[in-house]
Design a protein that fits this description.
The chain contains 2 helices and 11 strands. It has helices spanning 4-14, 135-139; strands at 52-55, 61-64, 76-80, 83-85, 90-94, 99-103, 111-117, 123-127, 131-133, 146-152, 155-162. A 6-stranded mixed beta sheet has the order 3-5-7-10-11-9. It is rod-shaped and about 90 Å long. The N and C termini lie far apart (83 Å).
């Protein structure tokens, strides 16, 4: 081990701007800002919480939204009463729905898929669609019936699934 002036001279000589610089590759070390594919040097893959990790092109690790990962994501279950606006991948259990509203955005880019089990049926309203399959049938939904709805790019399909 070098001490004193020898250690200082040796350190200056091998510093980045010294006469004989040593970089991390010379000693088998990694640079401070190195990454491993999409994993940064702090161990993160992106900055978004709740993503699914999977391998992509050539086995490279990627973070994707659950709905874009290709995995089957079980729907969230919500108990509802009163008026509400449908959300994506939710199964609603309604015990006193006063209004059921599925509405497409003005640009017709909305995507929404889910289920609803009617407890007591109120008014059912659907607005802003280019196509609706069987709108009259859901308008006469009965208590206890279960329905699936699927909205994509201004096109709404509603299907009765059970009594």
């Amino acid at each position: 081990e070098m001490i004193g002036a020898a250690a200082e001279k040796h350190a200056r000589q091998h510093a980045i701007d010294g006469s004989d610089p040593i970089d991390p590759a010379n000693i088998g070390a990694a640079y401070a800002g190195h990454t491993h594919g999409n994993i940064d040097n702090s161990g993160r893959i992106g900055n978004t919480n709740g993503m699914v990790l999977m391998t992509g092109l050539a086995g490279k690790i990627e973070a994707k939204e659950k709905k874009n990962s290709g995995f089957c994501v079980l729907p969230e279950t919500k108990q509802i009463a009163g008026s509400f606006i449908a959300e994506d991948n939710v199964e609603y259990d309604g015990t006193g729905i006063s209004d059921f509203v599925i509405q497409c955005d003005a640009a017709h880019l909305a995507k929404c898929h889910g289920w609803i089990k009617f407890g007591v049926v109120g008014d059912i309203e659907m607005k802003g669609f280019d196509f609706i399959e069987d709108p009259e049938e859901i308008a006469t939904a009965t208590a206890g019936s279960r329905w699936e709805f699927d909205l994509e790019r201004g096109c709404l399909i509603v299907r009765k699934r059970s009594e």
